[in-house]
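Regression check, guanosine-5'-triphosphate case 365:
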Amino acid sequence: MTVSDDGDDRITANVLTGFLGAGKTSLLKRLLSLPSLAGTAVIINEFGEVGLDHLLVEAIDDDIVLLKSGCICCNIRTDLKDALLSLFERSRNGEIPRFSRIAIETTGIADPAPIVATLSADPMLRHHFRVGNIVTVVDVPNGLVNLDAFVESQRQVAVADRLIISKSDIAAPEDTAYLRARLEALNPAAEILELDETMQPDDALFVRDIHDIVARGQEVARWLKAETRTHAAHGHHHDHGHSHHHAHEHDVNRHGDIRAFVLMGDAPLNWARFGLWLSMLLNRHGGEILRLKGLLDIEGNDSPVVIQGVQHLIHKPMHLDRWPDGVTGTHLVVIAKGLDPVLVERSFRAFNGLAQLAGGLTKGA
Ligand SMILES: Nc1nc2c(ncn2[C@@H]2O[C@H](COP(=O)(O)OP(=O)(O)OP(=O)(O)O)[C@@H](O)[C@H]2O)c(=O)[nH]1
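Current build output:
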């Protein structure tokens, strides 16, 4: 086991998700061939009776646990827990090599949020594991259709820290560009990388995350870019009647009722009051909030507090040693399904003692 920069010696669990056939196993194989990721155990959740993927991931035979009892998100969270704890025990007993990281590849039709919830909410699991980057693969040939047809596909994109566009080698460049625009609109805080099967991924995909002190500033800077993106998307939305737009551009923000927006604070927040507001929001709307990430300006603190969560779970807040260049004030990126950003913004401002904005929300997508 390795001790990370922040002194946390838990095993990092990376969730790898993406729709059926998107290229998850292929990406995982390439990642596991990197020397720096050699000490990675794998759990693959197969939908259906016969699991084949484990035959494809040869490098790591013994450390693979195959969950066959259906979709991980609805009925086998106990299996996931058992599988994780069993791997942990076996490595501690010396039956299998020690591992410092675990990759959980989900079935193509899973909503990954409950997997993250299992990892972060179960006290035993939380003691041994922490959630690292959630990586979602979306392929160009089928990605758009899947996004339109399946809410699971939208959710996979919405919760991701990294979005991988696959199969651009067999697609038209304009389709790849359009998919990228859709992904940016759906999850403006994620990093988007194009990686086809012939390209070797960087280990940073798994390794560089918000827990890494060196990467933390960069990671937060990316979240803050979301503000510009949601803003641009918002403006775009109002523009869509103009005839000079390419046909694709008309519906780039069409992703059901999932949308990203940014809450901004123009004065320092009271930590207790903010915590209460957030608890109330998550109690009531935890299922609708797919992802929440941000930087908080807290009364009495010179530097910002980083906060992030998936659905109703908020990870332990972390400090950033200084404000990123050019950034001041609270910025909270919310990706939610079926929530009216104007109402969330109103309650955020009212509860935290901030003046209401004239004209309502200014930064919504
Ligand atoms: N041309 C091309 N083919 C790819 C790429 N990535 C994956 N494939 C192929 O797509 C097919 C499906 O890839 P997998 O890695 O098995 O996809 P998966 O997401 O694990 O699939 P399921 O586990 O069935 O959901 C395989 O034949 C891969 O070789 C890519 O970037 N370009």
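Comparison notes: Residues 18, 20-26, 53, 108, 166-167, 169-170, 196-197 surround guanosine-5'-triphosphate (CB under 6 Å). The chain has a mean pLDDT of 79. No diff flagged against the previous build.
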